[in-house]
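Changelog-adjacent note: as of this version, every example in the card shows the full chain rather than a window. The one below runs 430 residues end to end.
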Amino acid sequence: MKKEYKLRIIHLSVAVLLTAALAVSLGLFAARSSALGTELGALYDSAYFALIDNLGDLENKLKKLDVASGGKLQRELLEGVYTDSEVAVGHISTLSGRNGEIAPALKFINQLGDYAGYLSRKAEAEGLTTEEKERLRELGSVVSKLNAAFLAAGESVAEGGNIYSAVGEELGALGDIYEALSDNSVEYPELIYDGPFSDGLNDRETKFLSGKEEITSLKAAELAANYFGGEFSVTSESDFNIPSYILSSGERNVRITKAGGYVLEYSSGKVATGTGKSREELLETAEALLEQLGYHNMEAVWVSESAETVYINFAFVKDNVVYYPDLIKVKMLPDSGLVAAVEAMNYIYNHTERETPSFAGTEPELPEGFECESLRRAVIPTDFNTEVAVYEAAGEYDGSYYYLYFDAVTGEEREVMRVIEDGNQGSLIA
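Full-length structure tokens:
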């Protein structure tokens, strides 16, 4: 992975994203499955692809537990494993009705969910023991192989095979794993546990636009022309969520807020045909545009690039503190250096004047074996539309790249992010 820039998702409190590799696979598989027609029933098809998604999330949470040291975070991840397992069981049950070869997978996921649920009940108060973390690591290895087997079955279908036989053939190759499981090498509690936590609050206000004077549609057209060149005309208005004017100029579209006249979204409709501009040149162009749009003191904290596009996430920085809630995404075209898209939703919702938070605690104690490459101060959003000051530690552990977040006062580990390489769109994080 390229480590010149910090890489982040827009909102930490959102449930873990679909891994990039799986997203690509699903797109390929879905296209193929649509051509199978009557051979592959809709219910079976849906269960199969949903399971691939689900197993990716499950594998990701188990890997995060490798570096999760705080009891509260361990509990949250284990609750997630329990929930993902419960969902996976439903999908596998549907598939097992067509193919008896995957019955052992159903048993395994059931047991994994029970074990995660059991550990989640004690994790926050007692933390995980070395033996328990090692056991979870072993189970994570099985999930990885199970996931790979299902993916391989889909690849067989994409090449013209039959998914009914492919699933059985691929999972049949996991006989050694199933034999180990049947030998009770891993002990599971035979208990039933509570479900996951309830969702966080969804009420939001546009803090950045508070008190801003409303502009006219003519002013919005003038601003769009100044920012992006050419002539723009108002095509419609939206009073839902964030009141705004929607303007267009050929293939280009822009949404400008009625309060204050800020660019909320922009899209050019253009695509790149090759490379030409360097990463540094693209960053400079994007940063200059944000400054022109009235978004000041923004710093690139995540860059994901491919031959056709470069995605840059900018965060507001003040007093050497990175405010991840105030995020703006910019899409660049590397051949021409043009801005292809801008999205400032999070910034408009969250940016406001703040006092620099307290970083009263000592620097965090990192997991043994974690190779820290950078440590910085930051503010991250929570599940309840609040914010918390943290230390962000970025580095490698056991072949993966992580971002760990520790409460700036208590030292408690609040969040874990793992970078996932994607051959199609660079690096993503989940």
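Structural remarks: The domain at 207-350 is CATH 3.30.310 (TATA-Binding Protein).
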